[in-house]
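Input chain follows. Return structure tokens only.
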Amino acid sequence: PWLGFKFSLAKHLVPKKLQARTGGRMRFFVSGGAPLARHLAVFFWGCGLPICEGYGLSETTPVVTVNGEHDIRFGSIGRPLVNVEVRIAEDGELFVRGPNVMKGYYKLPEATAEVLSPDGWFATGDIGTQDADGFLYITDRKKELIVTASGKNVAPQLLENLLKTNKYVSQVVVIGDKRPYITALIVPNWGNVEDYVKSKGVHETDVAKLCEEPHVTHLFQHVLERANAELSKYEQFKRCKLLPKELTQEEDELTPTLKVKRRVINQRYAQQIEELYAASSAPAVS
């Protein structure tokens, strides 16, 4: 009863406090520029502060789709604006046509021809899907798609975002292009990991040593298993390598918008990646 009372009280107090912090008259927020985590959208909607996620590019000046204040599909980028057409190509790439689409890049006719068809369809370079109700979902950038050795297309950002919903995960780089299975380089959330191992009686704080701590490797086996339960067989993680330090922009591992520089990571961590594929008897977490 006491726990139920506290839950009921929190359910009423938390939304009111959040609403007060935003001025008390906020109807909704608009989100764009990067994917909005589904659980955050659900949380704020439950607090009476809906976040309307949208999508667009500079070349589409800039909005293509957006969720409505009272018409939100969590995890989606919404429906196309009025007078804006979208279609999904056979390879999954999203194309856009409408009065918002640019006429071309200034004095760059060849670059324009690469992305803009004569009848006005603009190739966004994004991979997406559209549901029966017209809501669109972006899964990755076309140029970043992983094609496994068996020819399966895997969207790395989708898998990375799934893993990052786990409180023990800070950063992820999915590996698997031309490889027999999917693996990952994972930077743990060391604050949460240290709290976990302390609860197991381990008081080690050296993160390099924690990468090899049995309690930690066992924990990340469960992290992979939990993610795999939501994935198709060909998308599932077989192994991962724990990295002791964060990937940073200063080390040229992230772009200014904090996206992973995959080529740099593949070169810098080539040895660790090869270890993930070196032997079938290798541990799932190392």
